[in-house]
Amino acid sequence: MTATAARPAETFAAKQATTRHFLMCPPAYFTVEYVINPWMNPDEPVDAALAMAQWEELKNTYVRLGHTVNTIEPQPGLPDMVFAANSGTVIEGRVLGSKFRAPERAAEAEHFRRWFVTHGHRDLVMPTRINEAEGDFAWTGEVLLAGTGFRTDPAAHAEAQEALGVPVVSLNLIDERYYHLDTALFVLDKGPNAQIAYYPGAFSEGSRRVLARMFPDAVIADEADASCLGLNGVSDGHHVVLPFEATGLAAQLEERGYEVIGLDMSELRKSGGGPKCCTMELHS
């Protein structure tokens, strides 16, 4: 536990859950057959049935909490399509699609574009710059935190601001294990007093200063939390879904009044994914 958790829980405001709308993709074709991040090892066996069971538990958790979950049909030949967060950013009815850096994932973007069109999302822009969507974009309710360094092109940040009409703050990632923003930071509570959790070691010195200035009351995760992808979490403002191994982070969150739900995401982590990677939020 870090020093940021020193204050007693009663000094923090009561946590209020808000209903969320998620888009997910079943891991019907999930496997690890190529390497595009340090977590992936094609020589390590993947248990497809266990991956599906872990994904189902995540989906069922959202439904049990009262959230809406839509699903998109998985496609053969796209084993990482389960990581729906990488294929679109949706804010207040506007949609910015994705453009993947790795050719192995490129076809995913069109499948998600078609889903948006067939489900009534007309205000949709497909990017011209490399943009891995909610993998590198985190909406606080006021600003879009935007990661770069390994996947999303820095120029995609300006493109996102134009397409979505929200202010964007760029953050530079420096550790290849945390190749997407959503592996090192997530939003706990949206709004004017938004709260986040993050792992400082994933960010450049300047980006750490930006985060400390913007979010002085942030929850600071340590390397143990980060190394199990504990920052790849999903919060509804009260309930926080995390990999169960992130015990230090969970303790901090509980002290602040959040209810933590730890899940086993070990099979999907073999491709560098966790709860957030599997979950695109359609922000209203």
UniProtKB/TrEMBL annotation:
Keyword Transferase among UniProt keywords: yes
Gene Ontology terms: biological process: L-arginine deiminase pathway
Keyword Transferase: yes
SUPFAM superfamilies found in the cross-reference section: Pentein
Domain of life: Bacteria
Keywords: Transferase
Any one GO MF annotation of this record: arginine deiminase activity
NCBIfam families, sorted: DiMArgaseDdahMtb (NF045659)
Annotated protein name in UniProt: Amidinotransferase
Organism: Saccharopolyspora terrae
Organism taxonomic ancestry: Bacteria, Bacillati, Actinomycetota, Actinomycetes, Pseudonocardiales
